[in-house]
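Morning!

This is the sequence you dropped in the shared folder:
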Amino acid sequence: MKRVGFYFAKKYSISICTQVLIIMVFVSCESTAHAGAWPMAGGKGQIITTNLYDRAHRAYDDTGVLRGGENFSKTDISIFYERGLSDKYTLVIQTGYQDIKFVSGDVDAQYKGVGESSIGMRRVLWQGNKTVLSTQLSAIFGSSPELISDADLGVGSTLVEGRILAGRSFKVLGRNGFAEAQAAWRLHISDNPDEIRLAITVGVRPVKKLQVFVQGFYAAGDGALNIARPTKRTKVQTSIVWDINEKNAVQLGAYQTIAGRNIVREKAVFIGSWVKF
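The structure's back. C-alpha cells below.
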C-alpha cells in the first residue's frame, strides 16, 4: 500500500501535505438516503435515487484549522435499494456514479466513474411497540473516482462494515416522530486505516404528507504510515420528504461539514426520489 501518496508524488511532484489533502478529499460521504433501524416487511422494499451537488473551497488541516486555497466539486447520482426478505432480515444495496473535480496548488484532477458500492444484510435483534434494535453487516467496495477514506484517486480496497442501529418512535404535539442512532466500524482487509462512524437522526411528520429530517454525522479514520493521516469530520444535514402518493415521494436537502481534520469543508444540496414496491 505504499503506492498511495507515491502515485501523486510521481505524477504531480507535489508536497506530502498536498498528497494527504488529496487523499482525504475523496472520502466516502454519508448516504443522503436513510437506511433506518426498522425492517422492511417481507417482500416489500424501496429504491431511493439521489442527485447531489457538492462544493468545497476550504479545508481543515492536521490541527483542525480551516484554511483556503482548495477548489473541489462533485456531482453524484446514487442508488439505494432495500428489500425485506422476512420480518427480521432486510437486504441493502447501494452504488452510484460520480463526477469529481479537484484543484489544489499544481494539482488539477478530474475523475468520472462508479463510486463506492456496498451490499449488506440488516437483522432485527429486538423490536417492541416503539423501539427497535438492529445490526447490519456489509461488504464495501472502493472504486474510482470516489473512494474510501484511506485511498488516493483511483486506488481503493474492500472493507467490512459492522453497524448497530437503534430507533424509537414518539409523538410531538400529536404528530408522529422518531429518533435513531447508528454506530459503525469499518475494518479493512488490507493494511489501510480503519474508521468509525456515528449518525443521529430525528424525524418528525408535521403534516400527513411531509416528513422533516435533521441529522448529524461523525467519522474518524485512524490513519496509517505512508498511506494517510488521521481524519475526523462532523457534518449536519437537514431534508424534507414530500409524499406524492403511497408509493412515491421526493426529497430535498442540504448538508455541510462543520468541523474536521485533514478534510475539505463540504457544502452540498441534493434532490431524491423514493419509490416503494
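Headline: Residues 1-29, 146-155 have pLDDT under 50 and may be disordered.

More detail when I'm at my desk.
O.
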